[in-house]
């Protein structure tokens, strides 16, 4: 996949790969430890969110929107996620939000079932489950629709 350079200036397209080629949900967790750590709340295995007045949880806002997004104002909406492309299209942000909420929902259930687990264990176990969900959706639900049941049956 290619992209034009930032700020939409004319020029050649640049190759980019923002996340890994593995089905590891790195769009939620990041593909580098520093980013993954910055997305964690470090409490109850949860990921950071921003909470709206009506109690809904969304992706956290970037602390540096002019650096992280193609915006000119620090007041612009710009989200933080495991994949920097989160701000390129509302549909992408929605998928990221959905999986962030699912991670936190699962971490909450795990904490209720395993009160002796620390933050790190809760985070890692919730992450493993979310990755399994992402792989299931991709292999069992999406690929058969795109490639056809017959072809997928031969390769899986």
From TrEMBL:
The keyword Phosphoprotein does not apply. GO terms for molecular function: heme binding; peroxidase activity. It comes from Timema cristinae. GO terms for biological process: response to oxidative stress. PANTHER family: CHORION PEROXIDASE, OXIDASE/PEROXIDASE. One of its GO terms (cellular component) is extracellular region. This is Peroxidase. PROSITE patterns: PEROXIDASE_3. Keywords: Glycoprotein, Oxidoreductase, Peroxidase, Secreted. Its main location: secreted. It is found in: Secreted.
């Amino acid at each position: 996949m290619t992209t034009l350079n930032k700020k939409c200036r004319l020029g050649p397209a640049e190759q980019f790969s923002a996340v890994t080629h593995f089905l590891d949900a790195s769009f939620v967790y990041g593909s580098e430890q520093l980013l993954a750590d910055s997305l964690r709340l470090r409490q109850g295995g949860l990921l950071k969110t921003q909470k709206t007045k009506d109690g809904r949880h969304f992706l956290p806002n970037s602390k540096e929107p002019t650096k992280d997004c193609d915006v000119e104002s620090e007041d612009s909406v710009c989200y933080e996620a495991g994949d920097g492309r989160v701000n390129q299209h509302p549909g992408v942000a929605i998928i990221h939000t959905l999986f962030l909420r699912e991670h936190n929902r699962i971490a909450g259930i795990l904490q209720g079932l395993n009160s002796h687990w620390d933050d790190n264990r809760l985070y890692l176990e919730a992450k493993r489950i979310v990755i399994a969900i992402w792989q299931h959706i991709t292999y069992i639900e999406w690929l058969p629709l795109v490639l056809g049941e017959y072809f997928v049956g031969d390769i899986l």
